[in-house]
Automatic annotation (TrEMBL):
Annotated InterPro entries: Cyt_P450, Cyt_P450_E_grp-IV, Cyt_P450_sf, Cytochrome_P450_monoxygenase
Residues annotated for heme binding in this entry: C501
Similarity section: Belongs to the cytochrome P450 family.
GO-annotated molecular function: heme binding; iron ion binding; monooxygenase activity; oxidoreductase activity, acting on paired donors, with incorporation or reduction of molecular oxygen
Cofactor: heme
Key words of the record: Heme, Iron, Metal-binding, Monooxygenase, Oxidoreductase
Name of this chain's protein: Cytochrome P450 monooxygenase
Length: 570
């Protein structure tokens, strides 16, 4: 009897899903765009639990992933990472992925993406889907569009040009530490360049944002961070972010072993942030200097909030507020740590391993670094204002890496509560309220219609007036080289429009400093597994590693340490 009931329920569920799929498909077809039907929503909880086992089996079969039909491939979470621009090359610049739950309009056309990202009032962030980011309080990522400027102002204010010199100096200091520790490993190889680039990015952000300075320590060196200290708790929180988003840290702290440690780190991190805010408020009140660049603007936001709340309690509670509450500040500080850390770290890991596989690009970069820094005996003295603008080839490496491996590969949005038109490829489409969109940044940045040799990692594509390759770089030919973005509407790794990433230049300056430091005198190479391993076998291993990407939260190498890097003097 129970068997029949289960069977009947199963059949009813399948029939209901197929009916919903068909209803959604008709709605999407009515828009006049191509569609792809998926019988299951990729966010269906049963599917989330089941799918890893299915892919494990499929991945073992001797068929290339590309040979599976779309309906199989697109059921995999993050399918658009390996697909690059393929779906748009085949289906056009706009098409809809239809499931029994909804349809999602995928866009990869320069002007259309620019429109979506600029008209943020019409194409808004799907804040309901981002609620998990509210680990420590309401934040910029989940603020409704009308309330978002209240968060943006204190966050964006400190990210100005005066911050760049400290970022440059600290990034160089950290990179020198990383380089020394890599050279010390000599031919044994670097235990984990992927972990090390994470450490570096965390150290720079902690120092610049929050005045917490740390010396660089390689991944295999003994941990000396005090457990429960700022650095340790932040690192533990960021390393376990998905678990912490799903299980509140107070609950985790009561569980045994590793979970308790993660939960306690969540609690400790909050205590550190509250104390930092209190200390900063006291310091600024006494006219003392701030310990980090980010806090003063939050202290001012907290004061404004408090002042208005005290002066006008009723209207403050009902109508638009000014400033930020302590909860909101904690929420925003967490977003800064989250958004600023792994994005830069993942980009750095991709850049380092690509360079290791391309000795000719290292030589090209090194030539520029040598010339731009020739006046200096010590790296400590490299002047941001003089050296950074000359490092156009280093910037080109950053941009080319972000083109192929954007940490945020797609930006979701949803139309606000009325119909909206959007021009795509000279056609005007009308979308009802609540239509979901995916601006497919990685597809745009790897689309063969816009990028010659789109799949090739070739930093020189960003340099106009390139110096002749058959003679050494001179001051004159270096000065003539120009860094240029081919077309701003086909490159969006930081988003665009009002909600563009405020940490754009932070990340750029940091990575350029790291590259300049690494390649001034040294070179990286991929360690051979044995002395007779051929260069082509090494390159194959690199290709496998660089294409083995996952999207836990952001695009990253699944296991960068599939290849070991060696760092030596040139
Ligand atoms: C390579 C490094 C980075 C990449 C690729 C990146 C990318 C992005 C993207 C795509 C967005 C979303 C834009 C949108 O929704 O339209 C974003 C937002 C944001 N990023 Fe970054 N980011 C990077 C580094 C940083 C750094 C270093 C910081 C801070 C230290 C930072 C802080 C933020 C914040 C606070 C937001 C939210 C902005 C808002 O909602 O108004 N990011 N970033």
């Amino acid at each position: 009897m129970i068997g029949y009931i289960l069977l009947a329920s199963g059949i009813a569920y399948v029939a209901w899903s197929l009916a919903c799929l068909e209803i959604n498909a008709r709605k999407a077809l009515a828009l006049g765009i191509p569609i792809v039907r998926l019988p299951i929503d990729v966010n269906n909880i049963f599917w989330i639990l089941l799918q890893p086992h299915i892919w494990k089996v499929l991945d073992c079969l001797p068929f290339p992933w590309a040979s599976y039909p779309r309906v199989v491939r697109y059921l995999r979470r993050g399918w658009y990472i390996p697909a690059k621009a393929e779906s748009h090359v085949q289906l056009g610049p706009v098409w809809a992925l239809v499931t029994p739950v909804a349809f999602d309009v995928h866009v990869a056309e320069p002007d259309a993406i620019l429109e979506i990202l600029t008209r943020r009032g019409d194409f808004q962030r799907p804040i309901a889907e981002l609620k998990l980011l509210e680990l420590y309080g309401p934040c910029i990522s989940t603020a409704p569009w009308e309330d978002w400027p209240r968060h943006r102002k204190p966050i964006a204010t400190p990210f100005n040009e005066t911050l760049m010199k400290p970022i440059w100096d600290e990034s160089l200091r950290q990179a020198r530490g990383m380089l020394a520790s890599w050279v010390a490993k000599a031919d044994a190889g670097i235990p984990s360049y992927q972990q090390d680039t994470r450490t570096l990015s965390l150290n720079v952000l902690s120092a610049i944002g929050f005045g917490a300075f740390h010396d660089f320590r390689r991944s295999d060196e003994p941990v000396t961070d005090e457990i429960g200290g700022y650095h340790d708790s932040l690192k533990t929180v960021l390393d376990n972010i998905i678990l912490l988003m799903l299980v509140p840290f107070h609950i985790l702290a009561k569980l045994p072993g590793r979970y308790a440690r993660i939960g306690r780190a969540g609690i400790d991190y909050k205590k550190h942030m509250v104390k930092l805010l209190e200390d900063e408020t006291a310091a600024l009140g006494q006219g003392k200097p701030s310990s980090g660049a980010i806090m003063p603007s939050f202290v001012r936001a907290a004061e404004l909030y408090h002042r208005e709340q005290t002066a006008n309690p009723e209207s403050h509670a009902k109508t638009g507020k000014s400033g930020l509450s302590v909860e909101e500040i904690l929420g925003d500080l967490f977003v800064i740590n989250f958004a600023g850390h792994d994005t830069t770290a993942n980009m750095s890991a991709f850049a380092v391993v690509c360079l290791a596989a391309h000795p000719e690009v290292q030589a090209w970069v090194a030539e520029e670094v040598a010339l731009a820094t020739k006046e200096y005996t010590n790296m400590e003295d490299w002047d941001y204002k003089i050296v950074y603008p000359q490092l156009k080839r280093c910037r080109a490496v950053v941009y080319e890496t972000l083109r192929l491996y954007p940490p945020v590969p797609a930006l979701p949005s949803i139309t606000s509560n009325r119909t909206h038109t959007l021009r795509v490829d000279n056609q005007t489409f009308t979308f009802p309220a609540g239509t979901k969109f995916t601006s497919n940044l990685r597809a745009m940045q790897t689309h063969p219609d816009y990028w010659p040799d789109a799949g090739e990692w070739r930093p020189s594509r960003w340099i106009a007036n390139p110096a002749p390759t058959d003679s050494p770089l001179t001051q004159e030919t270096m000065t003539r080289e120009r860094f240029q973005v081919p077309d701003k509407t086909i490159f969006f790794p930081w988003g665009e429009g009002p909600q563009v990433c405020p940490g754009k230049k932070f990340a750029e300056v940091e990575e350029v400093a790291v590259l300049a430091c690494l390649f001034k005198v040294h070179r990286l190479k991929i360690k051979k597994r044995h002395s007779t391993e051929s260069d082509s076998a090494v390159h194959k291993r690199f290709e496998k590693c660089i294409n083995d990407i996952d999207l836990e939260m952001l695009v990253r190498l699944r296991d960068g340490d599939q290849v070991t890097l060696v760092c030596n003097e040139a």
